[in-house]
Amino acid sequence: MMKRKTRNLIQDSVVSTVALVIGLIIIFPLIYCFCGAFKTPHEFLTPNLLPGSFTYLGNFKEAFEKGNLLRYTVNSFVIALCGTSIRLVFSILAAYAFAYYDFRFKNLCFFFILGTMMIPADVLLATNYLTVSKLRLLNTYIGVMVVSFVSASQMFMLRQRFKSIPKEMREAAQIDGYGDISYMVNVLLPISKPVLTTLFVQSFIGLWNAYLWPLIVTASSPNMRTIMVGITKLNSWEDENYQLVLAGVCVSLIPSLILFIMMRRNLNKGEMDGALVG
Amino acid sequence: MKKELTLKNKRQARNRKKIFILLLPIIIFAVLFVYYPFIKTIINSFSLVNAKGLIKGFAGLENYQYTYGRKDFLLALKHTLTIAVINVPITIIITIALALLANKRRKLSPVYELLFTLPMAVSMSAACMIFKSMFSPSVGFINYFFGLKLGWYESKETALAAILILTIWMGIGFNFLLMLSALRSIPDQIIEATEVDGISPIRRIFKVQIPLISPTIFFVLCTNLVLSMMTSAPMIIIMGVSSAASSTNTLMSMMFQSGFSSSDYGLAAVLSITAFSLTLGFTILSFVFEKKKVHYQ
Amino acid sequence: MADISLINIKKIYPLVAGAKKKRHAHQDESSTNLEKTERGVIAVQDFNIEIKDKEFVVLVGPSGCGKSTTLRMIAGLEEITGGELYIDGKIVNELDPKDRDIAMVFQNYALYPHMTVYDNMAFALKKRTSSKEEIDKKVREAADILGITDYLDRKPKNLSGGQRQRVAIGRAIVRNPKAMLMDEPLSNLDAKLRNQMRAELIQLRRKIDTTFVYVTHDQTEAMTLGDRIVVMKDGFIQQIGTPQEVFERPSNRFVAGFIGTPQMNFFEAFLEEKNGQFVVDLDGFKVPVIDEDNARMKKNKAKTGKIILGLRPELLSLENSDKYPAAQINVVEMMGTCAHLHLIYKEKDLVLVTQARDENHHLKMDYENGSLIHFSFLPQSMYIFDLETGNNLALSEVPRQ
What we know:
Largest sheet of chain A: none
Order of helices and strands of chain B: HEEHHHHHHHHHHHH
Number of helices of chain A: 15
Strand order of the largest sheet of chain B: 1-2
CATH architecture of chain A: Orthogonal Bundle
Radius of gyration of chain A: 24 Å
CATH class of the largest domain in chain B: Mainly Alpha
Oligomer: heterotrimer
Structural class of chain A: mainly alpha
Number of domains of chain B: 2
Helix content of chain B: over 70%
CATH class of chain A: Mainly Alpha
Number of strands of chain A: 0
Order of helices and strands of chain A: HHHHHHHHHHHHHHH
Structural class of chain B: mainly alpha
CATH superfamily of the largest domain in chain B: MetI-like
């Protein structure tokens, strides 16, 4: 009769192996993409998974040059960075109001903001397009960012976080002579760093990955396209040019994957303040 | 006395101003880009809208009647519901299975947990392009690996199947995370009690663990239903939105096409509201289902 | 370095259903005894006191009596519903906390967790002084007084409870405020540390020359620290006086029972009067009231009848004769130099404190559970309280200022 310890060990190893294999199957599309990006056009026609060598950078070069990928990357970056920051600031301000003040229409305002979560954004595409168009914000960075300035879930989570900080901290700062903004900047936000970082990363990945709305807003200005729109265009003038496409996709995936993996690492290290829901 | 009053009022007024400033940004944008478009879309669906988006007259239910009679609408509806109905159960089953597999913390847990959640970080368009290439009839990997010669995107059924695989794949990451944390939140002692009582793993899974995570399953059900009703990107990216009669249209991709290719804003509005109502209906149905089947601790 | 005056201070928490009610859940629990009007729950009323410059005043009372609320009103953290608050001669009702030049030490310290001790203490100064050297000098001075100079670079999470408390105090004194407000600063420490810190606070007081308003529920702290104590209950001041005054001449039964350990014993007795002399009858054992009290009781037109008799445990003496009231020994606590005898008298508990050794320095060990002993007391040890109001009948007026 095997010892329990050994039995558990074997069981764990088997399960772990199985899980790893399944995991690899799950991320197979990503492996496929990565490999495909390095294949020469000729290699692509062959059924091998792996490319000849991982040093063939022709696809990337071509994607950047012909596909204007660099410009798209910059666009995406600016939009993701600014949009996330503004969104976070708006959420912080609102969360602060709900956490520290009482006022007559407080509940009304709160549920008014939360109510935005009930309406899927896609339903509003057409009208928002017309609005943005009337505001002359088509084909601008702001035009792309503007629909994502409201995040009820972020505001909600920040409010929870702010409320969990003991009231005395704010009072001590009040007595020390600090008003709302300086309290926020000097005490509240530094203490809330974990939540803020998580929300920032989640938002950034979300904005970076956005497709439909940027597509519409930048439809008439190819230069302003985001990278997610750009990679879908790599395919249109030369069909079956998949290795080019995959190279572009690889580039587009890099920031989100890196940020995501970093975030998971932090999660495994410490606790997340329950900030899981995007 | 008077001086006191004005000081107090000043402070109250100051506070009110502060609150106003704090809430103004988020409320303005909520109104401008969420509530206003929503109401406008509803109004549009009952009106005659020209190609510039201006309302030219009242149409009552005509828009709806006309739309619901169209063949391509019914087709899109069918596709949308098919996707929703197939996507959700499969996703739930797969993610529960993965969560059960990954539940126990082992040495390699961080690794395969990361692998299971990774699809979460992939954008819709990146995934579409990857899958488009994978399912390519000529150079795609799928045909090669499985020894098939299918023209995936030529036939309607196979196209839908490919897109289903795509959307299920996209949903694995996030839903796995939810299921895993739900499973792990079951108190250890309950599991230990089943071990002491000698309950077989299968019975434990179905009679103990799954019932105890039923709130999360319900939540996943709800959100995935809503999300799958809104599926449009694969149709747009992979299949193209050349015509309203595109063979694999869903409600939302048809909306996209009518709104942005043919500038038929009235139709787009009808489709949007229809899709929204369906998601609302599904959500409410889920709540009814919840009352019956979900166990809360 | 300022005097503080509270005139007719009143605090009402408006009774708005729902959210506002929940917010009061964190307030002291036993709000059931607070007066409820249509306007709301009256947490504090009729609060009057003139606190002199550099005086150490302690607000003491059970949970829910309104002491913390009053302190927070002085600080500006609670709005004053009625009355006037003067600090240094200026009326400050409507001023923000930061404009009142007061400093506060919170019960749970409220240190900024992401800053070092140095930064915690410097934080408040940054808004008032601009020169870095001045800030540094003040911080180091305060750190020196409190003995925390070695910890200036540490963060609060790396400090023990006692050290954190010192930092909290340091943060307050570094600003040289007009008044120091302390809200139960010792409650979060364990018993031994509390005693130690209490002694240190007394020493600290000598080094820091400013007005203190201190809130606690512990009457020992109040007695040892305060120049004057304010005993509160259910939102009202029960008595203001020096520790000695409050101990020796409690204004009512509540104060008498609250101050002093072990707690005063209360008996149901009768007050008789014969030829202008009041006599207390405890189940047949009659003791005349002393002249001073007698005179005052006459002036107060004290009525005969049932009264509450209060006797401190230390002032009861053991007797051997039958003519004294008898009680049964229940529990004996040997406390070293003295013994606490827990007795049962007419189904009520009674405590008597007596020396463990008698006059010949022999250990008095003849206390057997269940055995009967007799006790007696001197006339001057009696406290006579009205049965209904609880007022001390032998006081000329309720000392409130």
